[in-house]
Every structure is written in structure tokens, then in C-alpha cells.
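FAQ: What does the model actually see?

It sees only this:
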Amino acid sequence: MERTISRKRIGSNIKALARWYGFRIGDIEKDAGVSQGYLSRLANDSKNESSPIIDLLLTASDKFKVSIDSLVSMDFNKIADSDKMRLYGFFETLLYLSNRDRLEWRRNDGKVVHDDEAVAGFVAEYNEAISFYVFQLDVNEEEVPGYSFFIKNRDDISKIVTINLPGPALYESLDQLFNCAAASTESVSINEPADIAIRCFMSENSLVIDPTEEQRKYRPLFEYLSQKDDDVVHMTFAEMEEILGFPLPVSFQRHPSFWANNENGQHHHCRAWLDAGYKTVNVQKNIIDRHMFFEKIKKT
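And it is asked to produce this:
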């Protein structure tokens, strides 16, 4: 039976993910080479028989680290719970990077992560602090094969989700896990160490989870800095305004406190450079000269 592709669902999914991660619809349309307003027309199109422009699907898949199959078949607007959406996006990103050999998994034979789990499984070490584990659970007479997923954030081990559904391979088990996270509230549990690890992993892959309105405005600055490898990035205020697409508020040009590297304060715009791996330096002098230096944050 031939599968029907819904243009309306694809447009709706891309718009939902753009809202979630704070991307500008116009930027996605521009990168995909389609006309301005195309996504809105697509999301309101009641026709289901036409195929979408492949460049749009490829652009959205790369932007959101989501499979094309999910963009075609999922309905992201139905995932109302923020924890479910966050966890779904996290597993989609894991799969996206794994399928492109950008996240290496290896066998975890013999290493016990949790007393209740089987010792055979797979591990991916993301950085010095964060590792991911997926286990196939033991099978008894009353259960079908199941999977558990863990995050190790430094010395804290967190079980994220457990599901009892068949599926022998690593990718299939992750596929089942993120489908479970999207469908069942009973399966979703994210404690603080795991939450920090997920947010770090997502931000380092250019995905800010559920940004505030202020963070959305400064998303272009985050994207610009995310693409830099320099230890220090220098920008004049005029250059920054060109990147952002609007003039910097007067408060930014007069008060050093607005450039503070404060992760927990009321000024959420600072997440733009912090999530990109940079911090501001010599703020007091820089605002007088109408420029700013961003220094790469050294990982401990």
C-alpha cells in the first residue's frame, strides 16, 4: 500500500519544532531555497497527495537533528508535555548523530552501571563528563525484551526511561525508547544531573531546549558563535546588530550588568553566548568602546 505524505503535517511539524528550539521560520525557508511564507502555506494546505520539496525536509532534518521519517509521520503538536517533548528531541538527536557516525557506540560488556540491569549493553562517551548507556533487559517467562537508558553526568547515574518492547538492535531500542517517551507519561523521569547532561548535550549540538522569548530573539548570536572555533571572538556593536537584525537596547550599551555571564539570573539573553561555549570578558571597558570580546569557556 502506497504511503500518503501529508504536506500539511510536514509544515506543521517544522513550525512546531522551530517554535520549540527558537529558530526563525524565514531562516529555514531561506536555507531550503523556498519562498517566504512557504511553510505557512504548507501548514495550512489540506491536500495530502503532493510530495514536499526535498530540500525543505533535508534542511529541517539538519536544523532540528530529527529524521526525515519523523518529520513526515510524527505529529509534534500533539506532544503537549514539555518533559516528553524535551526527551523526544533528545533521543531524536542521539539517533541523528549516531546514524551519521558522529556519536560512537561501543559494547559495554562486563561493566555494571546499575544493579538491576543486565551488564551487556552499549555505551557512548560524549565528553569527559557525559556518557550514555543503553541496556537490553533480561527476559523471563512473563516479559518480552525491554530496554533501559541511562545518562552518567560525572559521578551521577540517572535512569531516564525503561520500556518492555521487542527490538534487538541499538538503533531500534533507541527508537522504541523515544517513542515511549513521547507516548507514556509513566515512563518519563528526568532528575537534575540527567537534566543538566541533556541540556549540555543539546546546546552543544546547537539546540536550545524550550528557549524563552528573550533567548529566541538572540538565537542568531548563539548560532554565529556556535560556528566559531576561535579562543576569542571580537564583535563591534554594529556587527552584532547586523547579526541579530535589530538595534541593541540602550541598557546593553550603558550597563555592564546586562553582559554578565549569569546562568541563573533574570537576563536570559546571556544564554546566547554561554550555550555557544563563550563568556564575555572586560565588559566595563568594552561597552565604552562599543564592542565586545567573547572568550571560549575552558572545559574542566
